[in-house]
Amino acid sequence: xxQLVESGGGLVEPEGSLxxxxxxxxxxxxxxxxxxxxxxxxxxxxxxxxxxNSGRRTYYRDPVKGRFTISRDNAKNAVNLQMNNLKxxxxxxxxxxxxxxxxxxxxxxxxxxxxEFRHWGQGAQVTxxx
Length: 130
Hints:
The protein is mostly beta strands. Helices cover 4% and strands 45% of the residues.
């Protein structure tokens, strides 16, 4: 049974940093494209960042470009999301997800879509507030 578990969320002041981690069991993450999504209160879930199964290619949505970094930790079968210079508008529940669709196909057009991801974690709350 596939299980994804996010950790590392919490409360941070504006301009602060947090690192989220997504650990998997039941599958090997570096066989798949992995994505981070987030959902703020009253808003739709949106894609944030995505990583090729090789780890050498990444994709970021405009609101987080230059501030967030996605990476793989294959030894731990995990994918991390380093978030710097956090803003109040980054407040959301963050989810990691696994897609069986190739990276190039996912990022084509308007970018990755929720229905293209098969396995999801339970989410980690990130709150940015002073």
